[in-house]
Amino acid sequence: MELKNPHLRSLVQSLSSLKSLNLRFVSISSTLPGFFRNLSSLSWLALSYCGLGGSFPSSLTRLAKLTYLDLGENNFSGHAPSSLQNLTHLTELLLYGNQFSGPVPSWLGNLTQLTVIDFMENKLQGSIPQSIQKLSNLRAFSVYNSNLVGTVDFDIFLKMKDLTYLNLSGEISALVCNLGSLSFLDISYNNFVGMIPQLCIHANKWMMIDVSENQLQGILPRSLANCKTLEFLDVSNINWKPAANGSFDFSKLQMLHLSYNSFTGELPSDYIANLNAMKAFETKDLTYMKANGIFDVVDYKGNRLNGQIPKLVGALKALTSLNLSNNMLTGNIPSSLGNLQWLESLDLSHNKLSREIPLELTQIGFLQNFSVFYNNLTGRIPDGNQLRTFVNGSFEGNYGLCGYPLLEDITP
Question: Which fold has domain 247-412?
């Protein structure tokens, strides 16, 4: 949808008593018209994805009753104006996906009603200002994918008893474990360096840890065993090693991403055996991940694992995605994988698996993606149900395989 002057002017001027306005995904113009200042009764305003740009519109800073302001995914540039601190009733400030530069504004500390700050994917520099610690009501703070430097001073957040979500750039400190109210830690896709800190030193209620796509290294901290409520763990592509002794009791875990870490040895059966939440699909016990449309996933792709696929993987009956591709796994595909009735994606490609594809895989009724290409599989491809829907590319590179959908029977 597109709105231009004079139509937008007449619309806004006729709505001077309006309290809520949602214009997300409406193309307005390159700059925000000044007559928005006439909406003096407005308390809720969403202008994300509107194609706005240039310097920040001063007209918005005169809307003194605003409690919610969303200007995400536009092209505003320069420093976020200090005049925003005049909006003293703001509880949510969303400026993600713009071109704002300079430091994280210290004046944010003057907006003491703020519960949500989202500056992710801008061009901010420097460090997080100490003034943020004044925001005792803060629940979520994100400066992800910016250019912040230095070690994050987690002491800033210690007094925020309702803080549940942190999404940061910079260097990580073990002090993050002192944030007792935190439920979600997301520092993915940054340039964090150094050793992986001892996360979860104390028992807590963390449900999500995502430290993927960084330059961290070391051994997965044993302290993670204290995260009894963890549902989501992503440590992909950070060059870490599993602990040498013992296993983790991740009984509530539903999302396990361990890809591209150069793991060696056999697939760790002890970790898999403790994934109790993946062994049954219980809709009556709706977890945070399921409530947000995220279902059970195990991803070990891109490591150097060898040995056989453990049969006990077939006990994870709630799995929707299993990816063991790009390893050095040998032996046969376990027939127990046929028990994974909710499975939508199965990728075993680029391994050294041999023998036949088990007939039991035809029992998987929801399979949408299936890849076993470039293994050493032989025999006829089972004919039935979902396996008949996949193209030649799902099976290529197995010179002993034959049957549909391969173009010719090449079995000796």
Answer: 3.80.10
